[in-house]
Design brief:
CATH class of the largest domain: Alpha Beta
Helix content: 25-40%
CATH topology of the largest domain: Aminopeptidase
Cofactor: Co(2+); Zn(2+)
Number of strands: 16
Family: Belongs to the peptidase M20A family.
Protein name: Succinyl-diaminopimelate desuccinylase
Largest sheet: 6 strands, mixed
Keywords: Cobalt, Hydrolase, Metal-binding, Zinc
Number of helices: 10
Strand order of the largest sheet: 1-2-6-3-7-15
Structural class: alpha/beta
Pfam families: M20_dimer, Peptidase_M20
CATH superfamily of the largest domain: Zn peptidases
């Protein structure tokens, strides 16, 4: 499907309407930031979904709230509630879907302002999750509203979803929507995920990720006679030393040809997410040799690496330690596997979006890949929608930092790009 040509006068009218509704858009974003939808544990998801849903309903969308029934993450205390809006055009296809996740990571230390006040200062709006990625949700919703206020009706169908749990894998969010048939190649032609991409970057895909847990098993004994026991912590220490001094240097030599940003993320990597073992830090200690210890790892792999190779490398390291020490006992558990994805930069979605970036921002689009994964993995691999990218306001480098912010000018710019892209892909009456 080729993009529809739109007159300069129509494009100017759309951009002018984005400017006119800027205050409404930022006010909505402030309201959304003020709902602390923190993950974990998944606080106030229903309230966040309903805030988005109310705005979509006001703008003429058919609304559905979709709870992730049957998922372990979905509990009475922390229900996983997604919101899905559809605005039918004069034709059901083509269909453009905008998705944004409204869960945010914990606040963390180092903030100098209230993380949920959504304060505006020097043209920036501050708050946890404003850049990653509530600003993107506001931009896509008000982009389509600007098209309507310009007196235009989209020929194709536009959808908007606010989803949960992206920060922990998206399994009760976009993955659930795809598995339940809300997203799919039989319904959607294009998907834009409104992650922060610095307004002029288009993220075509992302690296792979392998989260795994290694648990070492020892034998408990009195701490005054450790020779009678086997320390699981000692064994874990050996493995951690190997990861740091053997595996990391190897990974630092493996570089992808994919344009991952920032450039240092073009190399394979591994990070220790957590370490556990022995007795709890708090409370009364007793003299015991630790009989269980472990760590959780985050291995980012390249499109040039196969998953079998990635996992096999870990298994080989563990087996090496077991061969050297018969008392070295371990279990290796796969926690999450995400394969790399990459959208063809010559497809209609990418070419149309890049042209609109050039038109609005006056700069050529930068094609990149994300250092981390996001929900494109589920759109491509479960929903089977090939034309999917990430584009939205906010600096990627601001994600998860203290004093997270998003420039208001960038939100406006992205909304204009999204509006023009929707008009060209879907056509107007």
């Amino acid at each position: 499907m080729a993009a529809t040509e739109v007159s300069a006068k129509t494009q100017e009218a759309i951009c002018s309407n984005v400017d006119q509704i800027q205050d409404e858009m930022i006010s909505f974003l402030q309201d959304l930031v003020r709902v602390p939808t923190v993950n974990p544990p998944g606080d106030l998801y229903r309230e966040g979904a309903e805030l988005i849903g109310d705005q979509l309903k006001k703008f003429g969308y058919e609304i559905n709230y979709i709870t992730a029934d049957g998922m372990k993450e979905h509990t009475q205390a922390h229900p996983r509630v997604n919101v899905f809006g559809r605005m039918k055009g004069t034709a059901s296809r083509p269909s453009l879907h905008f998705n944004g996740h409204f869960d945010v990571v914990p606040v963390g230390y180092g903030w100098t302002r209230d993380p949920f006040a959504a304060a505006i200062e020097d043209g920036k709006i501050y708050g946890r999750g404003v850049s990653d990625q509530k600003a993107g949700i506001a931009a896509s919703i008000f982009a389509i509203e600007a098209v309507k206020r310009a007196g235009l009706k989209l020929r194709g169908t536009v959808e908007q979803s606010g989803s949960v749990d992206e920060e922990s894998g998206g399994f009760a969010g976009v993955a659930y929507l795809a598995k339940q048939g809300w997203l799919g190649k039989d319904k959607n032609d294009y998907v834009i995920i409104t992650e922060p991409t610095d307004t002029n970057h288009i993220y075509l895909g992302h690296r792979g990720v392998y989260w795994f847990k290694v648990t070492t098993h020892g034998r408990i004994a009195h701490g005054s006679m450790p020779h009678l026991g086997v320390s699981a912590i000692d064994h874990l220490t050996d493995f951690l030393h190997g990861v740091t001094h053997e595996l990391k240097p190897k990974l630092a030599t493996r570089k992808t040809e994919v344009p991952v940003q920032p450039p240092k993320s073009r190399y394979a990597s591994i990070n220790v997410n957590a370490v556990f073992g022995g007795q709890p830090e708090e409370g009364t200690q007793t003299p015991c040799v630790a009989d269980r210890s472990g760590a959780i790892f985050d291995r980012r792999f390249l499109s040039e690496e196969s998953f079998d190779q990635v996992r096999g490398e870990i298994s080989e390291m563990l087996e090496k330690y077991r061969s050297a020490n018969p008392e070295f006992k371990y279990t290796l558990e796969d926690l999450m596997v995400v394969h790399p994805v990459q959208t063809d930069r010559s497809c209609d979605l990418v070419q149309t979006l890049s042209g609109c970036i050039q038109q609005v921002a006056g700069t050529e689009a930068v094609f990149a890949a994300s250092p981390g994964t996001y929900d494109q993995k589920h759109v491509v691999r479960i929903a089977n929608v090939a034309q999917c990218v990430a584009y939205g306001p906010g600096l990627l480098a601001q994600a998860h930092l203290p004093d997270e912010y998003c420039r208001i000018d960038d939100i406006v710019t992205s909304a204009k790009v999204m509006a023009l892209t929707a008009v060209q892909l879907l056509g107007v009456e």
